[in-house]
Write a structure and sequence with these properties.
This protein is of the alpha/beta class. It has six helices and eight strands. InterPro entries: Flavodoxin/NO_synth, Flavodoxin_CS, Flavoprotein-like_sf.
């Protein structure tokens, strides 16, 4: 897929989602943009702040990106799953950019559960269906077991993006022969 205008956007508190985003960007030949929260998320206080915001489904304050998502054909957005919900900085990013996406795809990293609900929330906040979705456990990501899962995700993305492009092409008209 390299050569296309693809952006991989993510938030990562501990580095797990960052690792997945980096692998994915390499497979896609994509540019990368990290969502940055305005408040510190490190340590136990950052964990509690993150948990409370996720439970309340409240968007975090984030630093505005310098990237214009409307200039990308596809934006792939990644989130960790917190309390069966998307991370609050990702929630804020989706809300801020929902009217600018052309196509989206989603991935999440999770421990035991909540991945389906998080992906549902991402679709709802983006206001459009995803071309593809992927869930990886933190164990898969940290042990290097994510390569095959990400390759399958990229293959689905390629097929669905090609199908989208075909549906956007103007239909040719056949000239009548006389």
């Amino acid at each position: 897929m390299s050569g296309n205008k693809i952006l991989v956007v993510f938030f990562s508190r501990t580095g797990t989602t960052r690792k997945i985003a980096s692998l994915l960007a390499n497979l896609l030949g994509a540019q990368v943009d990290e969502i940055v929260a305005s408040t510190d998320r490190s340590g136990p206080f950052g964990y509690v702040r993150s948990l409370v915001e996720a439970l309340e489904q409240r968007p975090a304050q984030i630093i505005n990106s310098t990237r214009d998502v409307s200039s990308y054909e596809l934006v792939v957005i990644g989130t960790p799953v917190w309390a069966n919900s998307i991370a609050s900085p990702v929630r804020a990013y989706l809300i801020a950019n929902r009217s600018h996406f052309k196509n989206v795809a989603f991935f999440c990293s999770f421990a035991r559960r909540g991945n389906r609900r998080a992906l549902d929330q991402m679709r709802a906040l983006a206001g459009m269906p995803a071309l593809a979705e992927c869930s990886l456990t933190a164990r898969e990501a940290l042990r290097g077991e994510s390569s095959e899962i990400l390759r399958e995700f990229v293959e689905r993305l390629e097929r669905n993006l090609d199908a989208f492009r075909m549906s956007q092409r103007p239909r040719s008209t056949l000239a009548a022969k006389h």
